[in-house]
Amino acid sequence: MIDSELTKRYDVVVVGGGPAGIGAAVAAARSGAHTALLERGGILGGMMTSGYVQPILGAVAPGSFYDEVVALLSKGHEHLPPVVTRNGREVQIDVEEAKARLLRVVYESGVEIHLQTPVVDVVMEGERIAGVVAGTAMGPCTFLAGVVIDATGDGFVAARAGAEFEIGRSQDGRCQPTTIEFTIDHLDPDRAITCFGGSDPVTLPNGKKYSELCKEAAARGELPENVTIVRLHGTCYPGERNVNATQANGFDILSARGLVDAELLLRGQIDQIVAFLRKNVPGYENCRVKVTGSALGVRETRRITGIDRVEDVDVETGTRRKDVVVHNAWFLIDIHNPAGGGQAEKHSQPAKPYDIPYGALVPRTVTGLYTAGRCISGTHRAHASYRVMAICLATGQAAGTAAALCARENLLPHELDYHLVQEALLRQGCTLFDPA
Ligand SMILES: Cc1cc2nc3c(=O)[nH]c(=O)nc-3n(C[C@H](O)[C@H](O)[C@H](O)COP(=O)(O)OP(=O)(O)OC[C@H]3O[C@@H](n4cnc5c(N)ncnc54)[C@H](O)[C@@H]3O)c2cc1C
Question: What average pLDDT is seen over the chain?
Answer without folding.
Answer: 97
